[in-house]
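seq:
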Amino acid sequence: MNLRRDVFQAMADPTRRAILLLVASHSMTAGAIASHFDTARPTVSKHLHILTECKLLEQEQSGREIHYHINPHKMKEIADFIEPFRKLWDERFNKLESIMKKYKTKK
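struct:
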């Protein structure tokens, strides 16, 4: 399997997560995205390429510009995959909190 197309490998990079946060509310061009980072534009373009390869971002041509925006279907797919783990950890933390409260009252 090509790691560059793996969603979780793509999201492991902090710059790519920051890009996803930037375009979460509205679409942006590569130049607009790059202006938020202290790195070369080709580096940001490489990140955009990886994010579009794994379908986290979609491109939309508008004249000569390409706008990037979140693919909500792919984000939902990821959220659905993570949800059982979130529930499991919520239950574990709730149990720990309950135990800690009992321990605190015994002191």
